[in-house]
Design a protein that fits this description.
Elements: H1 2-25, H2 30-51, H3 64-87, H4 90-97, H5 100-110, H6 118-135, H7 148-170, H8 178-198, H9 205-231, H10 234-237, H11 244-256, H12 262-283
Helix pairs in contact: 1-3, 1-9, 1-11, 2-8, 2-9, 3-7, 3-8, 4-7, 4-11, 5-7, 6-12
């Protein structure tokens, strides 16, 4: 159960990050928030390696192209989800996000040659149906409450997130976690810093704490996802992403007063059931 447990914890942390980004997006631009986040990531890696040389393994890699691709799609995921949740309620953004397990299952079968049982496919589809049911109240007349570009950003972020899943699985045999953090953080810092400086808005003490805390949280979540894929196949881990539905409902209610309807709660319950049953099918 180590892989699923790590994945569950990572999804919780990503939910916290999404809520934190939405809270910050009202007063601070994307580049500023991500500049601080990636700077914290770099400092964590460099400081730990300074205190304990060799900690987290080598930063060199035998697969530079795969690591470069992972760094690019992780940056894309961070950017697109920040923009999506700036404009959308968390639960509506997660409707798009929850297509990721289906994308990962398909990619794991085609690209990774992993066996995906028919029962796992069926439960994953049930989970997506639960998401659609849960978010139905927000789509009266077939049109969501958020702007169209918000859904476009969410879709692009989901594509990048799914690519991270597949690349993590392909790189699972590389020892150490240093490169998992260092190369995406370095790329993100180099790309975002010029824009972050140009668009800098003086943060309050609370906002600065949120930005710094996001760097620590994303470091922990990234390591947990990478480690999860060392212990379980993509088909088993992908449906656990549905548990993010619980956090999106909770944070929307807590911070923005969006109380879920009964049908939303029913859909969330169906999502949890689908997660458990799909995991059992993949394990079996």
């Amino acid at each position: 159960m180590r892989g699923p447990a790590l994945m569950f914890g990572a999804i919780l942390l990503f939910g916290v990050l999404d809520a934190n980004s939405k809270l910050l997006s009202g007063a601070h631009p994307l580049a500023q928030v991500l500049t601080v986040r990636f700077a914290v990531l770099l400092l964590i890696v460099l400081l730990l390696r300074r205190l304990a040389p060799g900690l987290m393994g080598s930063l060199a890699t035998r697969h530079p192209r795969l690591n470069a691709a992972r760094a690019v799609v992780m940056l894309g995921s961070a950017c697109f989800f920040f923009l999506a949740f700036r404009d959308l309620p968390l639960v509506e953004g997660y409707l798009v996000f929850f297509t990721a397990p289906l994308i990962v299952l398909l990619a794991s079968a085609i690209l990774l040659r992993e066996r995906v049982s028919a029962l796992a496919w069926a439960w994953c589809a049930v989970g997506f149906g639960g998401v659609a049911l849960a978010l139905a109240p927000g789509f009266s007349g077939g049109v969501g409450r958020g702007p169209v570009m918000g859904y476009v950003y969410a879709l692009l972020g989901t594509a990048c997130y799914s690519a991270v899943f597949i690349l993590n699985r392909q790189l699972r045999n590389e020892a150490g976690i240093g490169r998992v953090l260092f190369w995406p953080a370095l790329l993100g810092f180099l790309v975002m810093t010029p824009f972050g400086i140009a668009e800098w808005q003086p943060p309050t003490a609370l906002a600065l704490a949120q930005m710094l805390g996001a760097g620590v949280a994303v470091a922990a979540a990234t390591v947990m996802v990478a480690e999860a894929f060392r212990h379980a196949p993509a088909a088993r881990l992908a449906p656990i992403s549905y548990t993010g539905m619980i956090w999106s409902i909770a944070f929307d209610a807590l911070f923005w007063g969006h109380a879920p309807a009964l049908v939303t709660l029913a859909g969330a319950g169906l999502v949890v059931l689908a997660c458990v049953m799909s995991e059992r099918a993949a394990r079996g």
